[in-house]
Amino acid sequence: MKRPLRVGTDCSGIEAPIVALRQLKIPFIHEFSSEIDKHCIATIRANFQPRIIFGDIMERDIRDVPDIDLYICGFPCQPFSTAGNREGERDPRGTVFYECLRVILHKKPMVFVLENVRGLVSIDGGETFKTILDSLRRLKIYDVQWKILNTADYGIPQSRKRVFIVGIRRDREKRPFQWPEPIPCRPLEEFVILENRKQPLPPHFYSSGMARIINERAIFINLGFTKHRHGNAHKICPCLTADKGKMYCLSQGRYMSVKEFLSLQGFPQSFKPHGSRTHSLRQAGNSMSVNVIFLILKIAMECVQ
Ligand SMILES: C[S@@+](CC[C@H](N)C(=O)[O-])C[C@H]1O[C@@H](n2cnc3c(N)ncnc32)[C@H](O)[C@@H]1O
Fold first, then answer.
1. Pairing of strands 161-169, 111-117
2. Order of all β-strands in the sheet with 247-249
């Protein structure tokens, strides 16, 4: 393509996909982002220059959305209603996914990537996910594929399984999309950032019996998993959660830092978190992993012309 790629993201969080595009060194124009969280918007403004930042996409007029070649959205996981529908079919109208579908239908980007928690595949007995795939495939112009990928299989030692749906426009497809091959992880020790900060473990670590069963070599643990041995926690960090006060660095005797969260999500040191520690941890904990979206976008962009 001769002109820069036009990119739009929805439910943009802290824009892991835009970080990935920068790393890919593909010339692009960041046409739009959208966020309902003012702290995410502040982080977006501190790190990126989208031409438009929309607020709630449920209130957006599709005519205000610019044309794009690449669309990425990590929409919230909501089951679809069957109320008022005589056939009992799941109805995505009124959901954030429906707004994503609208962008895809009206803007027909060459490539789209949708991301969600692994649970989306099974909520509602799998009916919601089936409706999502059917409604994307019914557009008939995309080759649509999905897969659950784990961040820890792609170079960064965090156990984080997320479902990705990739659509490639058939008339632009030079070759079929293939999911990335696993690559070895960097050692987890490299993700510990040394600090002079000590914070005691909370009393429930001892009272729940967690102290007795935990792997002694564990580096990062989730204090919410009280019955869990964290058997491989010296090699892989448990899935980062946005909940405050859960993720603890056992080897350093303190709660995990924002920098550790960001690096275990694949963000570069130059990334500027914005807002309080609580907000920054939530933003990083909700984000896509940059290493995973990097590989998906690399392969997807090689498939199109
Ligand atoms: C799971 S996070 C996605 C994060 C993002 N993909 C990233 O890489 O950082 C979902 C985000 O969607 C935002 N969101 C939820 N509903 C929204 C809506 N109706 N309009 C715009 N943003 C929304 C939330 O505030 C949250 O930051």
1. antiparallel
2. 220-222, 247-249, 254-255
Q: CA–CA separation, 100 vs 98, rounded Å?
A: 5
**Which domains are present in the chain?**
5-183+285-303 (3.40.50.150), 194-256 (no CATH)
Q: What is the pLDDT of residues 199-226, one digit of tens each?
A: 999 999 999 999 999 999 999 999 999 8
* Distance from Cα 74 to the centre of ligand 1, integer Å: 6
Q: CA 121, CA 240: separation in Å to the nearest integer?
A: 20
CB under 8 Å to 292, separation ≥6 — which residues? Answer: 149, 151, 154, 162, 164, 180, 266
Q: Of 40, 77, 100, 249, which one is the catalytic site residue?
A: 77
Length of the chain: 305
Give the Cα separation of 72 and 9 in Å (integer). Answer: 5
Instruction: Indicate if ligand 1 lies below 6 Å from the C-beta of 76.
Output: yes
Instruction: Tell me the best of 9, 243, 286 to mutate to test the pocket of ligand 1, counting ligand atoms within 8 Å of each CB and taking the most.
Output: 286
Instruction: Determine whether 77 is an active site residue.
Output: yes
Question: How remote is the CA of residue 33 from the centroid of ligand 1, in Å?
Answer: 10
Pairing of strands 52-54, 161-169: unpaired
The radius of gyration computed from the CA coordinates of the chain, to the nearest angstrom, equals 20
0.90 surpassed by pTM: yes
Question: For the chain, how far is it from start to end, CA to CA, in angstroms?
Answer: 6
Q: Rounding to the nearest 10 degrees, give the CA dihedral for residues 62, 67, 70, 74.
A: -20
Distance in angstroms (rounded) separating the CA atoms of residues 35 and 54: 6
DSSP bridge pairs for 166: 113, 145
pLDDT tens by residue, 139-167: 999 999 999 999 999 999 999 999 999 99
- Whether 240 lines ligand 1, by a CB cut-off of 6 Å, is no
